[in-house]
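Schema walk-through. Below, the input block comes first and the output block second. Nothing else is stored per chain. Lengths vary across the set, and this one has 111 residues.
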Amino acid sequence: MPDVFQVLADPTRRRIVDALRAGERSVNELVQVVDIGQPGVSRQLAILQDADFVTVRPEGRRRLYALRPEPFRELSEFVTGYRAIWEGRLDRFGAALEKRRRDKNRKEKSR
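--- output ---
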C-alpha cells in the first residue's frame, strides 16, 4: 500500500477525498465539486483506488465512489503518536497567555 501522505500530498486528491466525506459520489458529481475536468477526476480516482482510499460500486452505467476507513485509521494512529508533543506545547502556551493576562489585569488594577 502506498504511503498515505504521498497519496494525500496532491491537492486535487485531497479535494476529492473531502468531497467524498459526505458519502458516495459519481465521477460527474465530483467533477462539479472539485472543478476539474472528467479525465483529471478519473485519473485521481484511479490513484485513490489503487491506494485503497476509495471503493467503487457500479450502479447501472454510473460508478459510485466512496471512502474506505482503513487509510484514515492509519493516518490517525500516526498522528496520535505525536499528539502529546503539540498538546503539551499548547498547554504551556495557554498557561503563559493566562499568566500574561492576569499580570496585565493586576497592573491595571494597581494604577
